[in-house]
Amino acid sequence: MSALQLDDEHRQFRDLARSFVAEKIVGQHEGWEQSGRLPASMFTDAGGHGLLGFPVPEEFGGPGVDDFRYHAIIVEEVARVGAAAAAIAFSLQNDVVLPYLTDLADAEQQARWLPGTVTGETVLGIAMTEPGTGSDLAGIATTAVRDGDDYVVNGAKTFISNGENGTLFVVAVRTGPERHGGLSLLVVDAETPGFERGRNLDKIGLHAQDTSELAFTDMRVPVANRLGAEGDGFYQLVRNLPQERLSLAVGAVAAAEGVFAATREYVEQRRAFGSPIGGFQNTQFVMAELATELDLARTFLDDCLAQHVAGELTAARAAKLKWWTTELQVRVADRCLQLHGGYGYMREYPVSRAFVDARIQTIYGGTTEIMKTIIAKDLGL
Ligand SMILES: Cc1cc2nc3c(=O)[nH]c(=O)nc-3n(C[C@H](O)[C@H](O)[C@H](O)COP(=O)(O)OP(=O)(O)OC[C@H]3O[C@@H](n4cnc5c(N)ncnc54)[C@H](O)[C@@H]3O)c2cc1C
Predict the structure, then answer these.
(1) Whose CA is nearest to atom 41 of ligand 1?
(2) Known active-site residue 244
(3) HEC profile for 72-89?
(4) To test the ligand 1 pocket, which listed residue (96, 135, 359, 373) has its Cβ within 8 A of the most ligand atoms?
(5) If we measure between CA atoms, which residue out of 19, 111, 95, 12 comes closest to residue 58?
(6) Same domain for 328 and 347?
(7) Are 157 and 184 in contact (CB under 8 A)?
């Protein structure tokens, strides 16, 4: 029996999410890949179907349901069909950025920011990484200098997901010299003078996801847009990262299961030397190994999801889950591509997209190496 309990309401919600994906995403995704970004209408359509902002309180337009399983179901359904860019967008909107607003913003800030996150009119992003620092979060150099009721922000961010579509960003800035205690989080409207989007970066995969540079030049951000106390930024980021990593793992396992299912069909149909390639012992062994690993991944993931729902998922366990499931996703995509032969290298075969899309998963949200440093620290090493 799975550690993760889903009731009838979750199952009904999965049906809703699945039909949304079939109707609004599957047929359109290729076009979005060509245009290099998701359309703003995907977010408002998702909002219209009730797929955004489950924990947002009713007074701010949400259902007020603080149950991570709903958000996990959406990411799963989107990732399973290979729409990785859209899966990342849902993950960011619902799981990565929203908690900063629901958990750390005060009532006045919530009234300003939350309603649009539920309708999809507000597209969220988070800007931590800079050209000079990624893994080393505490190395952030973007400055925010207090001037009256504003901060004056100068600096640059890079690799920011939803960078072109985003309308509201949580931005990590330096408000003091202390390595950890000198960071703060500001919520920045993309319309703010001095906020500039750079290039939509040219990636090897995730072509429908807009990943951009952002530049801030004498950008005045009201002090009223700071989350929590000045100097709390690093600790606020660390607090929210386990859910971000869990959400990435949800996408990783579902995407790997999706590519495995497609490959299973392929090896039954494709023939060589007079028989289906699924009849070769090598193919059978590869598929048997992947089926076993996916079973392990699903069991581990469900256990972590159950722990998270109970408020018990630790940073170290989320790190274990993140590195292991994303490395598995890369391995599954690679081995499935091999079983497709030359067709696997052709863009028209979904496995080729799964291969390039998977590759980023072991890097963002904290690299595999950084996950291992967290685990080693937890081991007391
Ligand atoms: C497509 C995409 C989307 C992204 N989206 C966002 C986003 O929305 N918001 C955001 O803020 N960032 C985002 N990022 C940035 C991402 O989180 C960083 O790229 C990642 O954290 C790694 O940082 P870095 O690229 O600076 O690599 P570096 O930190 O320079 O790391 C380079 C290598 O050194 C290793 N390394 C570093 N430190 C250690 C250590 N202590 N021990 C062992 N090895 C180490 C790393 O594991 C890696 O292999 C995104 C990146 C990409 C590519």
Answers:
(1) 370
(2) yes
(3) HHHHHHHHHCCCHHHHHH
(4) 135
(5) 111
(6) yes
(7) no
Q: Which atom of ligand 1 is nearest to the CA of 125?
A: 8
- Spell out a b/e string for 113-130, using b for 16 or more CB atoms within 10 Å of the CB, else e: bbbbbbbbebbbbbbbbb
Number of folded domains that form the chain: 3
Assess whether 239 and 370 both reside in one domain.
yes
Distance between Cα 172 and ligand 1 center (Å): 15
What's the pLDDT tens digit per position in 222-234?
999 999 999 999 9
**Interatomic CA distance for residues 249 and 299, integer angstroms:** 12
Q: Are residues 136 and 208 in the same domain?
A: yes
Amino acid type, 122: T
For ligand 1, the distance from its centroid to the CA atom of residue 35, given in whole angstroms, is 25
In a domain, residue 3? The reply is no
pTM of the predicted model as reported, rounded to 2 decimal places: 0.97
Ligand 1 first shell, C-beta below 6 A: 125-129, 134-135, 159-161, 203, 206, 211, 360, 363-364, 367, 369-370, 373
For residue 266, how far is its CA from the centre of ligand 1 (angstroms)?
35
In this structure, which residue's CA is closest to atom 16 in ligand 1? 364
- Mean model confidence pLDDT for the chain: 97
290-299 residue pLDDT tens = 999 999 999 9
Residue from 77, 244, 257, 293 carrying the catalytic annotation? 244
Cα distances (angstroms) measured from residue 57 to each of 48, 60, 117, 273, 381: 17, 6, 12, 61, 42
Confirm whether 326 is domain-assigned. Answer: yes
> What is the SS3 assignment for 374?
helix
| CATH code assigned at 249 | 1.20.140.10
For tokens 């100097």, what's the residue?
Answer: 231
Host domain of residue 82:
8-122
